[in-house]
Amino acid sequence: MRFSNYALLCLLLYGVMAPAQVTVLRHVTIIDGNGGAPRHNVALVIKGEKITGITAAEVEPPKDAIVIDLSGKFIMPEIVNSHGHLGLLKGTKVSGENYSKENVERHLLQYQDYGVGAVMVMGTDRDQAYEWRAESHEGKIPGATIYTAGRGFGVPGGLLPAAMNVDLYRPNTPDEARKDVDELAAHHPDIVKLWLDDFWGQFPKMKPEVYAVIIEEAHKQHLRVAAHVYHEEDAQRLVDDGVDALAHSVRDAEIPDSLVAEMKKKNVAYIGTMSLDEFLTAYADDPAWLNDPYFRDALEPGVYEMITSAQYKKSVQDDKKTPAEIAAQSIERKNLKKLFDAGVLVALGTDSGATPTRAFGFAEHQELQLLVQAGLTPLQAITVATKDGAEFLHASDEFGVLRRGLKANLVVLDKDPSADIRNTESISAVWKDGKKVSDGPHARNE
Ligand SMILES: [Zn+2]
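Above: the input record for the complex with zinc ion. Below: its predicted structure, written as tokens.
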């Protein structure tokens, strides 16, 4: 071996073998994401990017460990948003024109400040996103980690409206659908997204023979399919056709027991996105959170002025859909609880970034509160937002719960979220891959 090679080998070996920094977060209460009772006065031991143990607080920390006293604080895993949209929102406008790496990074950092550690982008990405996803997983792009459905499937002349300037596949026939799925599959998206809705009769719906083929071909390519859905009738047909996830709540009718049983049997995941419906109607009046800095810091410039304007309030009040949207909110809570109780995989999703009122980070905590209003306990809601989201992302061997061997991706809270779910908002720090990366949303404007 030539000397230079030998020296290089030594360097490489040293790099691999150099002991990773050990950090101990001590005297803290841990909510690990599994749903069990919080563990009080323990120590979380981190080596490099991973958790190496959870011990009694008084266990002697390893020599050279950095020891951080977190007396009185709480730790939970980072939140997983199983339905979001990156890069489109800027100011009060949501458009493909805003889609850039810079804008995506801005959104990922905002998610992170609010304790959201991963996001599944549901069908509004362009092909650049695959490169960004790789960089995100390698830690080269900061903030929440990207998972993506790539370019989703819409309807010619239908959803998503052309004015949004989002580059979808819009197959008109089963043959076109098959070709488009094959093209998409070559990029290895994490899931396939389709929109079939007519949006209150405003648009043509996707033909059932088209979405049946999208599902069939995606499965041939070993890809799962998530569908935008509103109506129970569509949900039934999609589940019959083998869809893998409903990416919104069923909101027009209670889900019958037979469909609940079919979803459970076929392992269909359910992503409620209940905050989306709340944000549609909440600004007809001033909601309780309107002047909370935690909310206002999450808004893009101009959005607060928009939603508090007399004109905006009137437009919500006068919208003929508003009464149905309000009714939909109680229906979807019942449906979510029913599916959760039946053991269907429910993951937290919000659709944040799809409109200016669905603010990154704020929406995910609002969704946690709505899960509790639907009848889940705070600990169950946290599990939906963490462990179950990681399962939906197929990332359970990386994060989602706090246990030995998984990444130390966690949120430090000042108040106990198991006592009151609103306390997930009391973020004092966010840790990603074993390092503190944020002091929480309150630090955003300091
Ligand atoms: Zn969406």
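Notes for the reader.
The radius of gyration is 22 Å.
The mean pLDDT is 95.
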